[in-house]
């Protein structure tokens, strides 16, 4: 993996990644000449026992720009710069101009609930320079590189500046609130372990103490043996609809053997995980012969320096559709009670996805 680090005119960091050497002399552009001086803050929710971040300046962030202005496309006119330089590279990561968390956050307001600086980091990950592409259509080599990039960002940022958790994710589709349709994801780096991964880690830890093995690795073994919900399986990776799915087309993707984070992936695990991920993405897009919206979230070990043998790197997909034409809205029981209600069995949607034929080699 080849890496080149640059600095934008407004002071934000830009890092370029490629499987091939990156030419020297590239210049990091920015649509903004001056620093944002972002200063988000945290407020404690006493009933839920969790932090909420506030960043009022995000109300003015880029929203559904016209097709002729794509801030994630490579700059072609220096007089009208985008976020991306022209040049020969594959993936770019840069500091979000409108972050919900910022390392320099300071002086939170004094309120009737506890507050704190939102000392974290938010990055944008641009998967390709092609605005018409999608993660599902990128070659396996690019997806493997992306897994390496996520590992590099986790290693660089995790554990520094009191960062405790690094969460890569991709929002795809207007149905999940995407405002820029150029293929990209984000990385949020938190100064604490957020509520959802904290609860998952607690369950994993309890299981490990009782059984001496990984909860998710044991689940993967059992799903592979059962086979009813499996979408992809080889020696090193698996993808399946979980029997406890809360969304109709929810899918989990993970290594089959213990692996706590991206940096711990072996080359064979990384290659298999890329194939498993691409298989799921292609099945999604082929299911209804149209781009399939989703939230893809990657969970890994906290960056606190501990070993964390209990936890397992894995991805969870949350697609918003429950049928071809109907969205699954989170309503009373989901939002008010926190208990999801499903109208379809995981075995049914797994069977639908299993029947979707794809040729992974044609899209390699």
What does this structure look like?
It is a single chain. The chain has six helices and 14 strands. α1 crosses α4. The chain is α+β, with helices and mostly antiparallel strands. The strands form two sheets. Strands 1-2-5-7-9-8-13-14-12-11-10 form an eleven-stranded antiparallel sheet, sandwiched between helices. The chain has helices at residues 140-157, 195-211, 215-226, 267-287, 332-337, 346-354; strands at residues 2-7, 13-18, 41-45, 50-54, 91-95, 115-117, 121-126, 165-172, 184-190, 230-233, 237-240, 251-255, 294-299, 314-318. β10 and β11 form a beta hairpin. The two termini are 19 Å apart.
> Please, how many helices?
6
Q: Which descriptor suits the 3D outline?
A: globular
Overall mean pLDDT: 94
Main sheet record: 11 strands, antiparallel
Order of helices and strands: EEEEEEEHEEHHEEEHEEHH
**Low-confidence region ranges:** none
Strand order of the largest sheet: 1-2-5-7-9-8-13-14-12-11-10
Helix content: 10-25%
Structural class: alpha+beta
Question: In angstroms, what is the radius of gyration?
Answer: 21 Å
Q: What is the number of E strands?
A: 14
Strand content: 15-25%
What is the gist of this entry?
The protein is α+β, with helices and mostly antiparallel strands. It contains six helices and 14 strands. A hairpin with a 3-residue loop joins strand 10 and strand 11 (237-240).
């Amino acid at each position: 993996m080849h890496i080149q680090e640059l600095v934008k005119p407004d002071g934000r960091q830009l890092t370029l990644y490629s499987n091939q050497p990156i030419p020297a002399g590239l210049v990091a552009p920015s649509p903004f000449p001056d620093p944002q001086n972002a200063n988000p803050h945290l407020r404690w929710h006493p009933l839920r026992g969790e932090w909420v971040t506030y960043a009022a300046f995000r109300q003015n962030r880029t929203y559904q720009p016209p097709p002729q202005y794509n801030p994630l496309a490579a700059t072609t006119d220096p007089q009208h710069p985008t976020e991306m330089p022209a040049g020969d590279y594959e993936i770019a990561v840069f500091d979000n101009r409108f972050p919900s968390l910022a390392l320099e956050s300071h002086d939170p307001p004094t309120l009737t609930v506890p507050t704190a600086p939102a000392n974290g980091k938010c990055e944008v990950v641009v998967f390709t320079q092609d605005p018409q592409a999608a993660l599902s259509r990128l070659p396996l080599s690019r997806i493997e590189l992306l897994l390496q990039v996520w590992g590099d960002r986790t290693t660089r940022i995790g554990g520094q500046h009191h960062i405790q958790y690094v969460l890569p994710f991709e929002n795809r589709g207007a149905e999940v609130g995407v405002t820029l349709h150029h293929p990209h994801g984000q990385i949020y780096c938190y100064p604490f372990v957020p509520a959802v991964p904290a609860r998952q880690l607690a369950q994993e830890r309890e299981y490990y103490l009782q059984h001496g093995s990984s909860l998710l690795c044991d689940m993967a073994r059992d799903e592979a043996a059962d086979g009813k919900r499996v979408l992809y399986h080889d020696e090193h990776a698996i993808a399946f609809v979980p029997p406890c799915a809360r969304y109709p087309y929810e899918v989990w993707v993970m290594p089959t053997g213990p692996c706590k984070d991206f940096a711990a992936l072996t080359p064979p695990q990384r290659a298999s995980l890329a194939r498993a991920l691409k298989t799921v993405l292609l099945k999604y897009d082929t299911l209804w012969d149209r781009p399939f919206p989703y939230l893809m979230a990657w969970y890994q070990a906290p960056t606190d320096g501990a070993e964390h043998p209990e936890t397992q790197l894995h991805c969870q997909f949350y697609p918003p559709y429950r049928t071809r034409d109907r969205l699954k809205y989170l309503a009373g029981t989901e939002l008010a009670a926190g208990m999801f209600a499903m109208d379809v069995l995981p075995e049914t949607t797994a069977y639908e996805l299993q029947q979707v034929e794809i040729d992974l080699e044609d899209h390699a």
